[in-house]
Amino acid sequence: MPRAMIAALAVLLSLCGGVLAAPPAGKDGKAGVALVLALDGSASITTGDLEFQLQGHAAAFRDPAVADALAAAGTRVTLAVYSGPSSLRVLIPWTALDKPEDAGRFADRIDALPRGFQGDSTAIGSAIVEAAKLFDRDGKAPRQVIDIVSNGFSNSGIDAADARDRVTKRGIVVNGLAILDEFPWLEEYFEENVIGGPGSFAKSAMDKDSFVAALRQKLILEMVTLPDHMPSRSVATQ
């Protein structure tokens, strides 16, 4: 087993206390995991809050354990932002993270993104459906995962639970990260209406430090196939 995979699994075991099976790693340039990162750009997210999300993702991708896990799985990742229906916009197209240093370069691209996205409503269901379409564009992989970040519930567009059910029938996993600055019950909403698929889970965060910690743990967990008995709820405490 490659050194990077051993390191990633060691971190996972310390986080989860269970046995985890890695997905097939990429061969001949093919991904083992394809990951869509969908950030909340809705009106409930201020300019500072979107910057908070971007900075948090950049920091998580610079974490050595995350970089090792992403490379070991042969990850392809794309970063997008959403707000109302039909608003999902790709900020960074599909990018191969075949070596640990690729994650750092991805973080640099996040830092270099133009700011000023103006959103409206929070259409989580629409974002899920639109994110699933991205897998048809260089996102083919044995494991396909959508990450939804939001500080609010879906209030327009396709019903979130219906969208989740639609894409999970395709074998796509939907995970969530709830920012609890407005609604303390938002993680439970994610568990009931947003996440789905084998090993899906929701995490939550209250501030910058816990947001980065939750992202770091979530990105590592998403590089493996989680057993069905693993709990879906997981809150970052660091």
The secondary structure category is alpha/beta
How do the SSEs run, as a string of H and E? HEHHEEHHEHEHEH
CA distance, first residue to last residue? 30 Å
Amount of helix: 25-40%
Strand content: 15-25%
Q: Which regions contain 5 or more consecutive residues with pLDDT less than 50?
A: 1-11, 13-22, 226-238
Largest sheet: 6 strands, mixed
Alpha-carbon Rg, integer: 16 Å
Question: What's the total helix number?
Answer: 8
- Shape type: globular
Please provide the count of β strands. Answer: 6
On the 0 to 100 scale, the average pLDDT is 83
Q: What is the spatial order of strands in the main beta sheet?
A: 3-2-1-4-5-6
Oligomer state equals: single chain
Which descriptors apply to this entry?
about 240 residues, alpha/beta, 8 helices, disordered N terminus, disordered C terminus
Protein described:
The chain contains eight helices and six strands, in the order αβααββααβαβαβα. The model is unreliable at 1-11, 13-22 and 226-238 (pLDDT under 50). A hairpin with a 6-residue loop joins β2 (75-82) and β3 (89-97). It has 238 residues and is of the alpha/beta class. A six-stranded mixed beta sheet has the order 3-2-1-4-5-6, with helices on both faces. It has helices at 3-16, 47-61, 64-73, 100-111, 124-133, 160-168, 186-193, 208-221, and strands at residues 33-40, 75-82, 89-97, 143-150, 173-179, 202-205.
